[in-house]
Amino acid sequence: MAVSDDLLNFVTDQLSLVEEVSYKRMFGGVGIFNGGKMFGLITEEKFRLKANDSNREKFIAAGMGPLQMKKAGKTMPYWEVPVDIFEDKDQLKTWAEESIAIALGK
């Protein structure tokens, strides 16, 4: 299922405090990029950010989980963003910048 323009516009507006954000439609979803690296993903009508050991606990504490690739039987390192974070541009900026650092290997 393709990502709706309304959701894409909302995500990009919420990320307006983050510098150099771009996006690309791919595989029925939308990749969110910074510095040529994907740090976010919109799929299944959900916005997700890249996570690793440095920020995963924040997602877990908020009751969020990773993207499940059912056909492949594995998970991807993109975790659903909690609604309260998603709706707060300042908090989302902090979470997005952590994911950007992960994507850029910093």
What attributes characterize this protein structure?
alpha+beta, Yope Regulator, Chain: A
Question: Can you walk through the features of this model?
Answer:
The protein has 106 residues and is an alpha+beta fold. The chain is 33% helix and 32% strand. The longest helix is centred in the last third of the chain and has 15 residues, at 89-103. 28% of the residues are buried. Strands 1-2-3-4-6-5 form a 6-stranded antiparallel beta sheet. It has one domain (5-103): Yope Regulator, Chain: A (2-Layer Sandwich). The protein has 4 helices and 6 strands, in the order αββββαββαα. The termini are far apart. The model has no long low-confidence stretch (mean pLDDT 94). It is globular and about 35 Å long. Strand 1 (22-26) and strand 2 (29-34) form a beta hairpin.
Summarize the structure.
By secondary structure, the chain is an alpha+beta fold.
Task: List strands and helices in order, with pairings.
Layout: H1 5-14, E1 22-26, E2 29-34, E3 37-43, E4 46-50, H2 56-61, E5 66-69, E6 74-80, H3 83-86, H4 89-103
Antiparallel strand pairs: 1-2, 2-3, 3-4, 4-6, 5-6
Outline the biggest β-sheet: 6 strands, antiparallel
Residue-averaged pLDDT: 94
Question: How many domain regions?
Answer: 1
Roughly how many Å apart are the termini? 33 Å
The strand order across the widest sheet is 1-2-3-4-6-5
The percentage helix is 25-40%
N-to-C series of helices and strands: HEEEEHEEHH
Low-confidence stretches: none
Supply Rg: 13 Å
Number of helices: 4
The geometry reads as globular
- What would CATH call the class? Alpha Beta
Q: If you consult CATH, what is the topology?
A: Yope Regulator, Chain: A
